[in-house]
Amino acid sequence: IWTILSSVIFEILRLRGFSNQFCSAISRQLFLLVGFSYVDECDLFQSGTDRHEVLDSMQDLITNWGGLMKVTGGALRVDKSWWYLVEFVWIRGTWTPIDAGENLQLYAEDTTGARIELTYLPCAEASKMLGIWMAPNGNKDKLISELKGHASEWSSNFATSNASQLD
User: Fold this and answer.
1) Are 88 and 95 in contact (CB under 8 A)?
2) Phi, psi of 122 (to 5 degrees)
3) Which of 9, 11, 99, 116 is most buried as measured by Cβ atoms within 10 A of its Cβ?
């Protein structure tokens, strides 16, 4: 059901002008992307050349998304929401992501209708998005730490289990 609802919401947002053009690296075809969702998680995107225009567009997108969620009986979870604003600069022959959202704010309405400021994260700080720890600048420290923790827990559980070669 969520796939159907979110597809309709994404189409409405695309028609309202919130899509971004991306070029496929393999097919070289252009496609439009507003964001993507899976189960109860959603990532929304906006792009541009001026950070204030991108911020304003993202605020409009969040407001529209929240309004469309209300129509379905749902609501944004501001306690599970955060945002990044990343600028890519050319440093020594490489496009490098840097933070561009310091001292800026984005807001969303919570389930009571109160306007709440969303948490801004620096591009080196990983967040769990769709089950995977990722940071916009490619920092993999949190991902590796989490994977090591899960492997260690599994190993410990296996070593102390009653499993035999015959099981």
Assistant:
1) yes
2) -70, 155
3) 9
